[in-house]
Amino acid sequence: MPHIERGMAVGLFGGSFNPPHEGHLLVAEIALRRLGLDQLWWMVTPGNPLKSRSELAPLGERISLSEHLARDPRIKVTAFEKTLGGSYTADTLAHVKAKNPQAHFVWIMGADSLQSFHLWQKWREIVSMFPIAVVDRPGATLSFLSSKMARTFDYARVDEDDIGTLWKRQAPAWTFIHGPRSTLSSTALRANGRKTSP
């Protein structure tokens, strides 16, 4: 787990990154800039219960590709979730919170994940654990209106004009960040047999 100092604002950006691409980097950069974060943890997960393991590249390869792509020193590529032994996201975040009570965290997710977010294990616990920033992705702009998470926690939505203070807020609190979008997707890159190579 990366080192952080007391009072830091840290974004948690998890995913399979299979492979990582410029769209992921754009989400990370937007989150760093718009949320005023000190660090962003690029958390490469060992696996995803909602996706097939057969198409998952080795963890070491995904870490290496992510490190090559994410050059900003504020972005810390990590795979500490592997040491937790097959944890769900909610368990990983609870572990992060317990180990770092002196820091402020924001969960970062692409809007394309919002539609299926209610299928995640303990998704309500995730929303109640840390503030969440949902970053716009192509074809998912309206997901913040139609997703179950957005409807259930509509009362906790923070106006985009106030997102610079999101990391200071008590969860549940979430916002939708509009901005530049990349059409790249890991699914399309895998279908074309491509990966972002060092």
Automatic annotation (TrEMBL):
GO molecular function: ATP binding; nicotinate-nucleotide adenylyltransferase activity
Keywords: ATP-binding, NAD, Nucleotide-binding, Nucleotidyltransferase, Pyridine nucleotide biosynthesis, Transferase
Domain Cytidyltransferase-like residues, every copy: 12-191
GO biological process, one term: NAD+ biosynthetic process
Catalytic activity as recorded in UniProt: nicotinate beta-D-ribonucleotide + ATP + H(+) = deamido-NAD(+) + diphosphate
Pathway given in the UniProt record: Cofactor biosynthesis; NAD(+) biosynthesis; deamido-NAD(+) from nicotinate D-ribonucleotide: step 1/1
Domain of life per record: Bacteria
E.C. designation(s): 2.7.7.18
Family recorded in the similarity comment: Belongs to the NadD family.
PANTHER family from the UniProt entry: NICOTINATE-NUCLEOTIDE ADENYLYLTRANSFERASE-RELATED, PHOSPHOPANTETHEINE ADENYLYLTRANSFERASE
NCBIfam families attached to this UniProt entry: nicotinate (nicotinamide) nucleotide adenylyltransferase (TIGR00482), PRK00071.2-2 (NF000843), PRK00071.2-4 (NF000845)
Function field: Catalyzes the reversible adenylation of nicotinate mononucleotide (NaMN) to nicotinic acid adenine dinucleotide (NaAD).
Name of the molecule in the record: Probable nicotinate-nucleotide adenylyltransferase
Organism of derivation: Rhizobium wenxiniae
Gene that this polypeptide is encoded by: nadD
